Amino acid sequence: MTNKAHLSVVKPKGGDTEKITINLGPVDLGKIDLLVAEGFYSNRTDLIRTAIRNQLVVHAQAIQETVVRRELVLGLHHFSKQDLEAILKAKEQLAIQVLGLASIASDVSPDLAAATVASVEVLGVFHASPAVKAALAGRIR
């Protein structure tokens, strides 16, 4: 039997962010710098975050429909050693499907992860030890 991910929920800490890198042409970068210089934004990052948030609002309905259709769990989900041991004891497996952040505790062994996690689909960020990620490599989409 495969369960959807719905175990421990962790609240984000202030400032929890992931770094991304983008390449822009000199004209677009110049336009951003002009808007910053004119006081529309405090810095380049402020403009880029605002633009991304605005696009997420524009596409909010499509995002929500996709979350529902694909049965994704929205938010931040942490799987502790105790969570996975309970899944193992119940002779079940998890299908981790998260839009946001999914993490597996650092004290989870690769064997425990392999025995309890059927699949991992994370749209966002997946944190686990390198050994656990290696054990689940064929199951991560």
TrEMBL record:
<dbReference type="InterPro" id="IPR010985">
    <property type="entry name" value="Ribbon_hlx_hlx"/>
</dbReference>
<dbReference type="Pfam" id="PF17723">
    <property type="entry name" value="RHH_8"/>
</dbReference>
<dbReference type="InterPro" id="IPR041088">
    <property type="entry name" value="RHH_8"/>
</dbReference>
<dbReference type="InterPro" id="IPR013321">
    <property type="entry name" value="Arc_rbn_hlx_hlx"/>
</dbReference>
<protein>
    <recommendedName>
        <fullName>CopG family transcriptional regulator</fullName>
    </recommendedName>
</protein>
